[in-house]
Amino acid sequence: MEVDYLFQIGDNIVYPMHGAGVIKAIEEKEISGDTQQYYVIKMLIGNMQVMIPTGKMLSSCIRPVTDIVALKHIIHIFQHGESDRLQAWKQRYKVNTDKIKTGNMQDCAEVVRDLMRMKKEKILNTSEKKMLDNAHNFLTSELELIQGITDHQIESFN
Known about the structure:
By secondary structure, this protein is α+β, with helices and mostly antiparallel strands. It has 2 domains: 11-64, Thrombin, subunit H, CATH 2.40.10; 68-156, Methane Monooxygenase Hydroxylase, Chain G, domain 1 (Up-down Bundle). It is 42% helix and 22% strand. The protein has helices at residues 68-80, 89-102, 105-121, 126-143, 151-155; strands at residues 12-15, 19-31, 34-43, 49-53, 63-64. Strands 4-3-2-1-5 form a 5-stranded antiparallel beta sheet. Strand 3 (34-43) and strand 4 form a beta hairpin. The longest helix is centred in the last third of the chain and has 18 residues, at 126-143. It starts with 11 loop residues before the first strand and ends with a helix. The mean pLDDT is 90.
């Protein structure tokens, strides 16, 4: 029986809140008496392996890695987009957390951009420092897997 999968072995993907990874296998596993197909994903951050049921891929918001055409637009927004500096830090933290949870590269890039700009003006609190580090790691892990990316494009996010 042939099954049509959303992703194939070798596909580069992004798992929100975990970063980018590569699908290494599709395996059938029995867990708690239930047998189902799982994607086996090798994550770039933390050298971790994740297994996700094939039927839950859409609800998990996993997506393909951004392509080079979309990346050029994201770089432009990263370098020239406006930051909302009027929010209180708790409100800003919630907005930024929600953006990171989407798994969208542009949203993550905006969080990194805004927190990097703030860091140049004042010391970030511990929560925002950690958020900046995590968001930058997620962003960098995806950049590593984009086909055709140049070192200059990668450096534009630093």
